[in-house]
Amino acid sequence: MHKMATIKELIRYFMFPLLWGAGIFIFNTFEIINLIAIGIASFVVSLIILLIARILRSRMVRHMHSFNLIPEAGLFKETLPMFSSGKSKLPHIILMIHGFSASTSEFRYLAEKLKEQGIPYYAPVLSGFGLSSVENLRKVTAQDWIRDVLSAYHIASQSAEKVSIIAHSMGSMLAHYLIATQPVHKIVITSPYTQVKSGHRILKRLLLTPVISQIICLFNPTVKKNNKRDWQQLQGSGRFVYTAVPTESIRALWHLQNVTGNFFPANKDILLILGEKDGTIDTNAMEYQYASSNSCKVLRYANSGHNVLEEQDKDTILHEITTYLTEN
Q1: Do 203 and 246 belong together in one domain?
Q2: What's the CA gap between 22 and 28, in Å, rounded?
Q3: 72 lies in a domain?
Q4: Could you list the residue range(s) of the whole structural domain that residue 190 is in?
Q5: How far is CA 49 from CA 43, 45, 100, in A?
Q6: Are 105 and 16 members of one domain?
Q7: What's the domain count of the chain?
Q8: Most exposed among 31, 124, 270, 291, judged by the fewest C-beta atoms under 10 Å?
Q9: What is the residue-averaged pLDDT of the chain?
Q10: pTM for the whole thing?
């Protein structure tokens, strides 16, 4: 009897904790099942919403499939600018493409020379440049710049029978795209920036790597382009240029190099102009790159740096350019 009493006491003693534990287990099990059910339901609802959004989006852009997309520029051929002067076309026009961080002001001396000789020209401003806020450059892409020059070319080509191109520095990469995709009469390239110097190759690779690029832009948001001496020389020169740019714009510039690398000209007649004091590009590498695949007339000037159209040899250079453009 004593043993039976002991068993009953043990049962009574542990019954409540056992029942309590069992209740909690059952409750938690139902909670877990509920959470799983809620998760599955949320996933299904999200999937349905995404499918509906995709269907609606496809309906909105369905008609676009009948148009001709230009992927490098992110626009459709049918949406390019239309222009007419209302008169017959000019026989010839010059499209001038400026360089990185600069503006059309770097063509100011050349523009005067062209005007003196009655040579029509058009110089568009590339996206992000020539503005009161340099911060706009943070969101500009290589695709934007390609779209700029493609639109500019189509305005020029609708105003003249022949379009020639003068491109400086970064503008040379954009010129390559036009030369490869559009009819171009004559080509003048000055101080082409088509590849980085050896000291920037690793940085370029890092800046074009997604996650690493974001970290670099976060901790080094701005790149200074000019030193104090350069800044002093810019004062009163009439040359509009950013002395510092967002790091994101350097990334866009180097991405443009990769994109337009597939469009490098071949078997073209090109006037290539280089400055011996150029510290921005490797002039020997540039001369070899152009001359090895084109019929290239190379002019090198001992007293000029990167901005050959504005420096000591500019008068001689401008004469060479206008002479080349007016030759038959």
Answers
A1: yes
A2: 10
A3: no
A4: 91-326
A5: 10, 6, 43
A6: no
A7: 2
A8: 31
A9: 87
A10: 0.81
